[in-house]
Design brief:
Structural class: mainly alpha
Largest sheet: none
Oligomer: single chain
Helix content: over 70%
Mean pLDDT: 90
Shape: elongated
Radius of gyration: 17 Å
Keywords: Signal
Distance between the termini: 21 Å
């Protein structure tokens, strides 16, 4: 495996991990805010906080990987 490929994989992996952490944290915080609101809605009560967190993490994973590939593509085309 050449140096550029290793750097791309490292970039994608680190951006994906950051996306998972940020997406999961944001979803978890949103579900907590929903439950602590002055007026709790039925939608808030019926949603599963774990499912919401996992959905946020998967969205963050895709966003992080997409951002990494976008940056790599941009850098490649600037050379």
């Amino acid at each position: 495996m050449d140096r550029k490929t290793k750097r791309l994989l490292l970039l994608v992996a680190s951006c994906s991990v950051a996306g998972v952490v940020l997406g999961g944290t944001a979803s978890w915080a949103q579900s907590n805010l929903c439950l602590q609101a002055d007026k709790v809605t039925s939608e808030c009560l019926t949603q599963d906080p774990i499912q919401e967190t996992v959905e946020g993490m998967s969205t963050g994973l895709l966003a992080g990987a997409g951002a990494a590939f976008g940056v790599a593509w941009n850098v490649r085309h600037q050379d």
